[in-house]
Amino acid sequence: xxxxxxxxxxxxxxxxDARVLFxxxxxxxxxxxxxxxxxxxxxxxxMAGGALLLSWDEHSVSxxxxxxxxxxxxxxxxxxxxxxxxxxxxxxxxxxAIGVADPDLIGxxxxxxxxxxxxxRSGSDIIFFGANDAADLARLPRVRESLAxxxxxxxxxxxxxxxxxxxxxxxxxxAAGLVDVKVVKFSxxxxxxxxxxxxxxx
Length: 202
Prior knowledge:
- By secondary structure, the chain is of the alpha+beta class.
- It has two domains: 4-80, PH-domain like (Roll); 84-201, Vaccinia Virus protein VP39 (Rossmann fold).
- The chain is built from five helices and 13 strands.
- The chain has helices at 67-78, 83-87, 105-112, 140-144, 166-175; strands at 4-11, 14-22, 26-31, 35-38, 42-48, 51-56, 59-64, 94-98, 115-117, 124-130, 147-158, 179-185, 190-196.
- It has a seven-stranded antiparallel β-sheet, covered by helices on one side. Strands 9-8-10-11-13-12 form a six-stranded mixed β-sheet.
- β5 (42-48) and β6 (51-56) form a beta hairpin.
- The longest helix is centred in the middle third of the chain and has 12 residues, at 67-78.
- It is elongated.
- The relative contact order is 0.11.
């Protein structure tokens, strides 16, 4: 899906040319008129010809994306990916979830058809590792030992706290022989960072 387009835009009745970006949680309009449209605040989303019409708060916007792109954006707005889709959880995967303070996670994983344990197991395709502070990250070398060679270790950490930072998490992953490859929103309060074993070491 094309997520970065230059097109005609009308924001609250004012027309302009702008660059429009479809981000994970918002649509950003950059031009003579600017707007950040939070997807969670949308009141309506529909198409008129090749334009995508959106309203949120007290604002409205028309994005002349062309019919094909407008259709794809509308579908994505109406049917957003779940967090398991973003993380890449598949039926039958062997998953270990340790220290993750999320009451819904195990149920979501089980419903997806994954083989889930709340204890660390060798050969895990995915490991969810909850880390609340820098001290927790010291366990990464041992956690890494339970990861399948082509598996993914997702470190789940709280957002916006000083006890554990993105830089610190990345450094700890590197020290454990891992490389970071992706970051996704895990919840309103937590971020998930994906680490893998480098191909040369598998």
